[in-house]
């Protein structure tokens, strides 16, 4: 705390009133990023992409529409360094990994609010229920980002921003249907009236789905999925330089799923709510911007099995309350300070009732945690084209005490079209409430720690019609938490519920040391007007480096070492746009022992879109054109050839 306050005092006292200072950008991850240049807000400050030292991918509304994907997961899978595993079709448990990190080491942010579920095993976010909805921008910031985003941001950050209006009244709608009785409909309406800007959007999605268990392992019944979601944003200008924000997101889903070995009539429900209220205050003619916010997330999950006497088999709830202050100060032309204070309170409840009504429902496992943080970051442009960034964060956890994290980086955009990047970041992730207090909990766990760096270059030719780039990254994680299974004859004291002689199936343990490094390469070219070709390749070596263990040197589960994406699109002069995309994923392993192999696969998609009018378009696509049979999780099925068609309007 002392170092942080000294740092901020130095910045303000030495350069606070420099005559060349400009307006500070809004300190908000959900700020309007509409501009002629690409801006990134996952950095918690609207920053031009050429001034971000870490690797980042920005998908704007045009790119989201062009891809035609229903879920955010499918969009992200086309970006460098990202892999997923899914236990069946739409709606089933979905894990997204950035650069080989654990799925719960990625922070998901929706309209500026960090969304995680304290009742889930890893405390992370299940991407199964995150549909595209009214998203206007999706950003993927790769590498450790804990200086700005705190616990969990070891792998990176996914920032989803919903739309804000640009006109007095505007709206959009998308309706499509296709294979397996899949129907998706989404619509949004918004506008500006005097000091008030507002927008509300909703989406309804349903599908009969596929068998979660692969047909190769006996799966026959279809496991369906439904989801209803709504988003809303309101901004009110209260006075000159003062505004208030209200933001909300709600999702209600139901999915049928199977056990690990056979079809079953079991199903689960998932309800997520995100709420935010904020006050924005601009001082000194916009040089000093302040945001005071309150964020609330609530996730409620339940599983049911109609075959049992007691239908409900699982009940869990996780809640977060977050108070935060964030400020940005334009010290001088090209020099900006970002700083903030946060307090987060997390709670969870979880219980697994017996199938028999004669067995009483046990008391639920409960837990809570509080963490208070302060952070500061300085962005400086000492010379034209060169941006340097340095930051520090101090976290005070009510159980694990204080931890200080550092980050630093630089970007040099040269007149030759060359952009050089390098950054270093540290990560810290406290054990989750589930890992500490659930029926498998271990209260002796230590926090996970990570540090990583990257260096890369991008070259642009012919007025950016040809772009080539590559990045090397390296990350080490220590005290990684894993689930350790117990045999029925084990004498390990931790294989018994603490304080009893009752055996349990397993417990969480700090044993792992993980190492990841690799290369991300990408290219894009526009050889003629209307024709765009782009692609990326990722080589990700993610290994278990726990010395002296049987798995030392093994691949971390469900992480392909090689993957590549390619796409081509052509806009014909008469309003038709056609395209094709291909994804290749190398083989991986389903288990830590590397004895169960998941084979490589190639997926080909075709897309077409026709403009009936400037505001109305027809579209269609074929996914998995050659009906490739593959698995991203052993024994679980994946979608075969699928055809969808629909229309969209923008007015």
Automatic annotation (TrEMBL):
Subcellular location: Cell outer membrane
Single biological process term from Gene Ontology: cobalamin transport
Region (Disordered), start-end ranges: 297-317
Keywords from the named record: Cell outer membrane, Ion transport, Membrane, Signal, TonB box, Transmembrane, Transmembrane beta strand, Transport
Highest taxon of the lineage: Bacteria
TonB-dependent receptor-like beta-barrel domain ranges (all copies): 239-625
Skewed-composition ranges (Basic and acidic residues): 298-308
Ranges for domain TonB-dependent receptor plug: 49-157
Span of the annotated motif TonB C-terminal box: 634-651
Secretion signal span: 1-18
One GO CC annotation: cell outer membrane
PANTHER family assigned: COLICIN I RECEPTOR-RELATED, TONB-DEPENDENT OUTER MEMBRANE RECEPTOR
Membership in a protein family: Belongs to the TonB-dependent receptor family.
Protein name stated in the entry: Vitamin B12 transporter
């Amino acid at each position: 705390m002392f170092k942080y306050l000294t740092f901020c005092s130095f910045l303000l006292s030495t350069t606070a009133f420099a005559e060349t200072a400009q307006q500070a950008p809004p300190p908000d991850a959900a700020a309007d990023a509409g501009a002629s240049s690409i801006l990134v807000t996952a950095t918690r400050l609207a920053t031009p992409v050429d001034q971000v030292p870490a690797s980042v991918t920005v998908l704007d509304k045009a790119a989201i529409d062009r891809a035609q994907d229903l879920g955010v997961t499918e969009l992200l899978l086309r970006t460098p360094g990202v892999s997923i595993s899914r236990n069946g079709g739409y709606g089933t448990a979905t894990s997204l990994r950035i650069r080989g990190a654990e799925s719960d080491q990625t922070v998901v942010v929706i309209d500026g609010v960090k969304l995680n579920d304290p009742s889930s095993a890893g405390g992370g976010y299940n991407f199964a229920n995150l549909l595209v909805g009214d998203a206007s921008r999706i950003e993927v910031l790769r590498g450790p980002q804990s200086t700005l985003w705190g616990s969990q941001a070891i792998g990176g950050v996914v920032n989803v921003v919903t739309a804000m209006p640009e006109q007095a009244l505007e709206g959009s709608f998308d309706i499509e249907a296709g294979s397996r009785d899949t129907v998706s409909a989404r619509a949004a309406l918004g506008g500006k009236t005097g000091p008030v800007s507002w927008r509300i959007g909703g989406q309804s999605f349903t599908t009969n789905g596929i068998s979660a268990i692969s047909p190769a392992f006996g799966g026959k019944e279809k496991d369906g999925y439904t989801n209803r979601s709504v988003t809303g944003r309101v901004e009110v200008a209260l006075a000159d330089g003062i505004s208030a924000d209200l933001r909300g997101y709600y999702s209600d889903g139901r999915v049928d799923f199977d056990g690990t070995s056979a079809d079953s009539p079991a199903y689960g429900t998932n309800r997520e709510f995100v709420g935010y209220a904020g006050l924005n205050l601009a001082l000194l003619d916009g040089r000093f911007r302040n945001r005071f916010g309150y964020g609330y997330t609530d996730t409620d999950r339940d599983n049911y099995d109609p075959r049992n006497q007691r239908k409900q088999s699982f009940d869990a709830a996780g809640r977060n309350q977050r108070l935060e202050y964030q400020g940005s100060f334009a010290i001088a032309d090209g020099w900006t300070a970002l700083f903030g204070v946060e307090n987060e309170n997390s709670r969870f409840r979880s219980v697994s009732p017996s199938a028999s009504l004669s067995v009483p429902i046990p008391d639920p496992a409960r837990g809570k945690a509080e963490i208070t943080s302060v952070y500061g970051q300085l962005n400086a442009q000492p010379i034209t084209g060169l941006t340097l960034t340095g930051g520090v964060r101090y976290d005070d956890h009510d159980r694990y005490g204080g931890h200080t994290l550092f980050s630093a980086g630089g970007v040099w955009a040269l007149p030759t079209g060359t952009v050089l990047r390098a950054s270093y970041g540290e990560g810290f992730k406290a054990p989750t409430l589930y890992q500490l207090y659930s029926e498998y909990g271990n209260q002796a766990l230590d926090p996970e720690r990570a540090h990583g760096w990257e260096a890369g270059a991008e070259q642009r030719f012919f007025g950016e019609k040809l772009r080539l780039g590559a990045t090397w990254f390296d990350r080490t994680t220590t005290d990684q938490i894993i689930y350790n299974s117990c045999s029925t004859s084990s004498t390990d004291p931790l294989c018994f519920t603490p304080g009893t002689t009752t055996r349990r199936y397993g417990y969480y343990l700090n044993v792992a040391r993980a190492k990841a490094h690799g290369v991300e390469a990408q290219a894009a070219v526009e050889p003629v007007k209307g024709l765009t070709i782009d692609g990326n390749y990722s080589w990700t070596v993610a290994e278990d480096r726990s010395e002296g263990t049987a798995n030392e040197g093994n691949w971390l589960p469900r992480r392909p070492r090689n993957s590549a994406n390619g796409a081509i699109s052509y806009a014909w002069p008469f309003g038709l746009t056609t395209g094709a995309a291909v994804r290749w994923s190398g083989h991986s392993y389903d288990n830590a022992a590397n004895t169960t192999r998941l084979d490589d696969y190639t997926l080909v998609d075709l897309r077409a879109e026709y403009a009936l009018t400037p505001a109305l378009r027809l579209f269609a696509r074929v996914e998995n054109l050659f009906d490739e049979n593959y698995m991203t999780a052993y024994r679980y099925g994946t979608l075969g050839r699928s055809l969808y068609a629909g229309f969209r309007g923008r007015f």
